[in-house]
Amino acid sequence: MDLEDIKKVGVIGAGLMGNGIGFAFALGGYPTVLSDVSDEVLERAMERVRSTADLFVEEGLVDRGEADTAVGRITTTTDLSEAATGCDFITEAIVERSLDKRELFNKLDEMCPPHTILVSNTSSLVLSDFGSEVKRQDKIAITHYFTPPAIVPGVEVAKGPGTSDETFELTCALMSAINHVPIRVLKERPGYLLNRIQHAMYREAITMWAEGVATAEDIDLGVRTAFGFRTPDEGPLLHYDLAGVWKWPEDVRRGMSSRSVTEESGLSAEAAEKIRERHAEGKPWLIEPERFDQACADAYRSYARRLKALYWPTLRGIGSGKVA
User: Fold this and answer.
1) For the residues 89-99, what does the mean pLDDT come to?
2) Catalytic site residue 156?
3) Is the model's pLDDT at 55 over the cut of 50?
4) Least-confidence region, from 34-38, 170-174, 203-207, 259-263
5) What is the pLDDT of residue 262?
6) Separation CA 169–CA 265 (nearest Å)
7) How distant, in Å, are the alpha carbons of 88, 122, 166, 172, 323 from that of 140?
């Protein structure tokens, strides 16, 4: 299959990541199906899509006509089979549970046409965790976007054990076609490439907090002011807040802690337990929970301005719409 053979795409899971991924595809010129379990979830997703479209217009990334056309390319459904049977490329963006992803991938494998490529937006699991029963091993991969996915240009594209070179290269080409930058990850690793780097900083930050070296506010202030060239808007603790990790189901948060917060990583037993308990509480570090939506909106606007200043002209030059 070539890039021009991808006529329609699907995104399964319309939450914080899924709706943004859907808008990115639609803005790239692709008719896009957003699918989730309820009409209420999909209505909220479309509200966020329209808000993102407005932001792109307000910041001069696209004009109103292009934004409205992109929104118009998105349809929604609660019927998984409707999304599966009509799409050439499907992105899974559901909750970060291996069993849930395995069930979905197996269903999609049965429902989708043989040529359809299935990718996951997982940030911490590997394809071997949940894709091992899929028959089309050559046509599954990872596309890990970063919050907010319609704006942050980098996307990790990662292989699984059976991913073909054709699928890998086609997926990278598709990311370029939707105005994103594919970051090629050649081997399976939990957390892949950038999350491992990012989490190393986060782990150090929460260790310093747990051991009383500095407050959460001063840790983030230090990172922002010292690493300002790279992370001008958020340190690792504010990133945790804006990514909505604290809103994840408790079992998923605990699973994340069990994988990443261990005494083997150099933490004292007391510090490790303190961090696990803090994650289990399900609350942000720095923002007020009721200001989550506004905090995200403020951050996204800043990201959009940086995207426009640093990347957008080049990205639009190499990847506007479908590239033959």
Assistant:
1) 96
2) yes
3) yes
4) 259-263
5) 66
6) 35
7) 12, 13, 11, 13, 22
Residue by residue, DSSP assigns 29-41 as: T--EEEE-S-HHH
DSSP-derived 3-state class of residue 9: strand
Which percentage of the chain shows pLDDT scores above 70?
94
From the list 59, 92, 96, 156, the catalytic residue is 156
Neighbours of 235 (CB within 10 A): 25
CA distance 297 to 47: 13
Q: Is 59 a catalytic residue?
A: no
**Tens digit of each residue's pLDDT (9 = 90 or more) over 151-194:** 999 999 999 999 999 999 999 999 999 999 999 998 888 888 88
In angstroms, the CA 208 to CA 219 distance is 8
19: annotated active-site residue: no
- Which CATH number applies to 3-191? 3.40.50.720
Joined together, the tokens standing for residue 272 give 């490790």
- Residue pair 223/235 in contact by the 8 Å Cβ criterion: yes
CA angle 136, 193, 21 (to 5 degrees): 60
| Coil, helix or strand at residue 300 | helix
Name the active-site residue from 144, 180, 239, 279.
144
Which residue out of 19, 120, 121, 123 is catalytically annotated? 123
Distance CA 89, CA 160 (A): 17
Interacting residues of 56 by C-beta distance below 8 A, sequence separation 6+: 27, 62, 67, 150, 304
Domain boundaries, the chain: 3-191, 194-287
- What SS3 class is residue 107? helix
Residue 153: asked if its preceding bond is cis (omega within 30°), the reply is no
Q: Is the pLDDT of residue 321 over 60?
A: no
